[in-house]
Amino acid sequence: MKLFRDYLTGDEMFVDTSKHEAINDAFYMVVGKHITMSDGNIELAGSNPSAEEAAEGCDENSVSGIDVVIHQRLMETQFGSKKDYMTYMKEYLKNLTKKLNEEGKTDAVAKLKCIQGPLVEILKNFKDLQFFTGESQNPDGMVALLDYKEIDGEERPVIYFPMYGLEELKL
């Protein structure tokens, strides 16, 4: 199993057990699922637990949401406008470039430029996007973009992570 961490903050962003693919050598697109977790039990949205297993009353310790967000403890953040997001992204790419250069990863620095085309395409739906940071909520860290996309005839949440802002670790 591989863990993908934010290169600048070390926050865990996703694991390779989630369905994911590279988009234009710039982003990983991770396909999420809506789930409900309660006291260690996980149920997929829309599932129908049998009557024998159904608990009486209300379960106060349940959490519903997108699996990647819940499992990696991603935290939602917001941007007032596309301009605010672009200001953040410019600063993020500057900090990432500096760190990659310091560590001699000039090939990754050269590939950072390819992020613009796919980013423009993703931001066309800016008003529909949700934004997530890592667990530390470090303002210098990566912000992942969540959108919904038709996959296999079903609308599914997809989260976009800048590829060269991630560090891959084998577990």
Automatic annotation (TrEMBL):
Q: Name one GO molecular function term.
A: calcium ion binding
Domain TCTP, by residue range, is: 1-171
Its GO CC terms are:
cytoplasm
| UniProt cross-references to InterPro entries, sorted A to Z | Mss4-like_sf, Mss4/transl-control_tumour, TCTP, Translation_control_tumour_CS, Translational_control_tumour_p
One Pfam family assigned to this protein is TCTP
- Family, per entry: Belongs to the TCTP family.
What PANTHER family does the database record attribute to this sequence? TRANSLATIONALLY CONTROLLED TUMOR PROTEIN-RELATED, TRANSLATIONALLY-CONTROLLED TUMOR PROTEIN
Protein name from the UniProt record = Translationally-controlled tumor protein homolog
What's the source species for this entry? Meganyctiphanes norvegica
